[in-house]
Design goal:
heterodimer; A: mainly alpha; two-stranded antiparallel sheet; 10 helices; B: mainly alpha; Helix Hairpins; 68% helix
Chain lengths: 262, 114
């Protein structure tokens, strides 16, 4: 198909899309007049039922917890799929920098260019940020029941801490801090624990993912909201591990050189 | 003013789709796909907005305060996570395509069938 033909095909499909969009648009409630009833109903009962003041978390980890299991396994599958797609192919080996024991950062493609070492001005602030970033990540993962936070947000920020180690110019330190086997275990543990919390409810004769833990006294406190806080914690582990794995896989690609030294 | 958010949605979709169709680079195409998907955030949050509503978090305000719809916000969160996962997977396919065929141009890649 020539680009010209492709554009014509796109024009026809786009016309259909525009027609469907306008049709759907005519049926939308006016902006600011959301009719419900699902959302308003949850708003009315969520705090009393779950003791979580973050209603979005209550939906993600309790009311629609089953959907979130599926969502988490999409992330799990993507990370697993990446390690399959990016496995070392025949004819690939670790880069020259690796062999000479100086693979501090991914190897530069240009052959006769020396890698400038990461300057202290970059290294010091990034390393100094690692601690606070880990703290913020855990804080977010532990406060799903109170604030706009939770395992997903916290997990991504935790993964950022590993990125900072890499940015400071220490690829090998990044690898040492995040060995693939450990990350695989953490990811599996996070995903499995979510499912296990749901099954624990079934074992007591309750529906799957039913909130069976004590809800605490104060709405929004760290100890409140039962399984919501617990699941958010495990999701945080899973997301942090999955994203660190994904980032590591991509970074490792820059260390690979094809046979023939290209 | 009432239709403005939905016009923004249409504009983001159109910009992303146009990029997808005309792009000559796989990485650029993946970014265009992200742009298309970003429109769903605006759509979800636009649909769930309630005039004068606060965010559905009641840690320091009355639990009876008028709030926007929390369900679409939870959906938007799901959307972000899935997008990140899908993008990572697509990028790894692009890396392998470049390794195998030495090009990222979808037009050239179409010639390497089988």
């Amino acid at each position: 198909m020539t680009p010209r033909q492709r554009r014509w095909l796109f024009a026809i499909a786009a016309a259909g899309l525009v027609a469907c969009y306008l049709w759907a648009f005519a049926g939308l409630p006016g902006f600011g007049h959301y009719p419900g009833p699902y959302g308003p109903e949850i708003l009315k009962h969520a705090i009393a039922q779950t003791n979580a003041t973050g209603v979005v978390s209550a939906i993600n980890f309790d009311y629609r917890g089953f959907d979130t299991v599926g969502e988490e396994f999409i992330l799990f599958t993507a990370a697993a799929g990446m390690s399959v797609v990016l496995r070392k192919l025949r004819g690939e080996r670790e880069g020259r920098g690796e062999r000479e024991g100086r693979a501090k950062s991914p190897y530069d493609r240009a052959r006769n260019r020396d890698l400038p070492p990461t300057s202290d001005a970059v290294r010091m602030p990034t390393l100094a940020l690692v601690g606070p970033v880990v703290l913020i990540g855990w804080w977010l993962a532990a406060h799903a029941q109170a604030n706009p936070s939770g395992g997903f947000q916290g997990g991504v920020i935790l993964a950022t801490a590993f990125m900072l180690v890499y940015l400071s110019g220490e690829f090998l330190a990044f690898r040492r801090l995040s060995p693939v086997a450990l990350l695989d275990c953490a990811e599996a543990l996070g995903a499995g624990a979510f499912v296990a919390v749901g099954l624990a409810a079934v074992a007591q004769g309750l529906p799957y993912l039913d909130n069976f833990l004590p809800l605490g006294q104060v709405p929004g406190a760290v100890s409140s909201s039962g399984t919501i806080a617990l699941i958010s914690f495990f999701v945080g582990i899973e997301v942090a591990a999955a994203f660190t794995l994904i980032i590591g896989e991509l970074l490792e690609q820059t260390l690979l050189v094809r046979a023939g030294g290209r | 003013m009432a239709v403005f958010p939905f016009l923004v949605v249409a504009w983001i979709i159109a910009a992303g789709l146009w990029g997808l169709v005309t792009s000559r680079d796989l990485i650029h195409q993946i970014v265009c796909l992200i742009v298309v998907q970003s429109s769903t955030y605006v759509l979800l949050l636009g649909v769930g907005y309630v005039t004068g509503g606060v965010a559905p978090y009641f840690y320091d305000i009355s639990p009876h305060a008028k709030a926007v719809d929390p369900v679409v916000q939870a959906l938007a969160l799901t959307d972000v996570v899935v997008e990140a996962a899908v993008t990572a997977l697509l990028l790894s396919f692009a890396i392998q395509a470049h390794k195998r065929f030495g090009t990222l141009d979808p037009h050239d890649l179409a010639e390497f069938k089988g």
